[in-house]
Structures are given as structure tokens and as C-alpha cells.
Write a structure and sequence with these properties.
Blueprint lengths: L4 E6 L7 H14 L4 E4 L12 H7 L3 H11 L3 E5 L9 H12 L15 E7 L7 H14 L3 E2 L5 E2 L2 H4 L9 H24 L1
Parallel strand pairs: 1-2, 1-3, 3-4, 4-5, 4-6
The structure holds flavin mononucleotide.
Flavin mononucleotide (FMN) binds next to helix 1.
């Protein structure tokens, strides 16, 4: 049976980012689950702020098409989402907005968000662990883009202290929840492989 391909994407590009760390941990754990893992950074897909007149005039930039194709080459997508002002980062939202506008020949609307499964988690130095960014991201992906997002999610609170010296999640209960989320993502991605 073909091996599911999982894309791992942090919503931050900051040096020392907790969510880049969480994404790296997800990639490490996913590799142990016998899937093909690709980890990317939005620094490799610089995009202007979405502007409808620009889109109407010139269409989505090459990096939006490249990112859309990268997502479409995978059966599952894990997003590590930082929280800014009780929502997602502008960089992540902008990337999703642009990708949602890309329509290549024969594509249905929101092609990048269909036929694959998404999982979302967050890390924040705050006490809520970025939970509100997950609520916003779930709304954007599910209601905005028609994506399937698994219910399992983890919000890593007090992120400055939450990782040990090996960059694993220090708290055993939280680490187990995170692993269970990734297992569920893989289980669902396997169904996507069979379906398509
Ligand atoms: C503009 C801005 C708004 C923020 N708003 C929140 C917030 O609403 N809730 C929260 O927990 N942290 C908030 N933070 C703190 C971020 O969670 C923190 O900077 C975190 O480290 C960002 O994620 P990263 O480490 O992956 O870059 C905010 C930070 C910035 C720069």
C-alpha cells in the first residue's frame, strides 16, 4: 500500500519560534509512524499581502501556486499555529488566503483543502497555549476553505518551559495527547491514500 505523505507547516518563521519547534517535533514523531514527511517554512514562499485588485490583474503569485501544489502533493497537513491577538498570524492567514485563490486547470474551488486531512496544534508562552488561534484556524480551514480538520488538537501552554533539552514536550500527559493527535492524522491520511 502506498505510504501517506504528510506536510508539516509552522505558522511562524521567527528565530527560536516555539511553533517551529513544535513542527519539528511533529515531523520527528510522524517519521516514526511510517509516513513520508515534508517540513516546510513560509520563508520559502514569500507572498505580498492579499489584494483583490492585484489578484484580478495578475493572478496569484508563483509562490502561491508553488505552495498550493506542495499542499496538494500530500495526504495530510499538520499546522503549528502561533497566536497573535487571539487569532492566527497574518503570515499564515495570508498564505491560506492566497492558496485558496489558486485554481489551476480542472481544479474545483479550494482544491488544496479538499481530498486531504488537516491537524492543528499551537504553542504559546501564555497560559492558554494559543488555543484561540486554533479556534480561528479551525474556522478558517473548515468554514472558509471546506477542509476536513480532525478534532484532536493540542495547545502547548507556557511554551518557554514546555520543551525539554531534547525539544520533546516535557509533560507526559501533553506529550501523549500530541502523539495521539499525530496517530489520528496518519490514520485519516491512510484513508485519503486509499480514496485517491
Ligand atoms: C502581535 C502579537 C500578538 C500576540 N498575541 C498573543 C495572544 O493573543 N495570545 C498569546 O498567547 N500570545 C500572543 N502573542 C505572543 C506569541 O504567542 C508569542 O510571541 C509566540 O512566541 C509566537 O509564536 P512563535 O514562538 O512560534 O513565533 C502575541 C505576539 C505578537 C507579536
Amino acid at each position: 500500500m502506498p505510504i501517506p505523505k504528510i506536510l508539516v507547516l509552522p505558522g511562524s518563521t521567527r528565530a527560536g519560534s516555539h511553533n517551529v519547534k513544535l513542527a519539528a517535533l511533529a515531523a520527528k514523531e510522524l517519521t516514526l509512524l511510517d509516513v513520508d514527511v515534508t517540513r516546510i517554512s513560509l520563508t520559502d514562499y514569500p507572498l505580498p499581502i492579499y489584494e483583490a485588485d492585484f489578484d484580478a490583474r495578475e493572478g496569484p503569485p508563483a509562490n502561491a501556486v508553488k505552495l498550493k501544489q506542495m499542499i496538494m502533493a500530500h495526504h495530510g497537513v499538520f499546522i503549528a499555529s502561533p497566536e497573535y491577538s487571539a487569532s492566527v498570524t497574518p503570515m499564515l492567514k495570508n498564505a491560506i488566503d492566497w492558496v485558496s485563490r489558486v485554481r489551476e486547470r480542472g481544479d474545483p474551488t479550494y482544491a488544496a483543502f479538499k481530498g486531504r486531512v488537516f491537524a492543528i496544534s499551537s504553542a504559546s508562552p501564555g497560559r492558554a497555549g494559543g488555543l484561540r488561534s486554533l479556534m480561528a484556524l479551525r474556522q478558517i480551514l473548515e468554514l472558509g476553505c471546506g477542509a476536513l480538520v480532525i478534532p484532536e488538537q493540542v495547545a502547548i501552554q507556557r511554551a518557554d518551559y514546555a520543551f525539554d533539552e531534547m525539544d520533546n514536550i516535557a509533560d507526559t500527559g501533553t506529550a501523549n495527547l500530541f502523539r495521539a493527535q499525530l496517530e489520528r492524522l496518519v490514520e485519516m491520511a491512510r484513508l485519503m491514500v486509499r480514496g485517491g
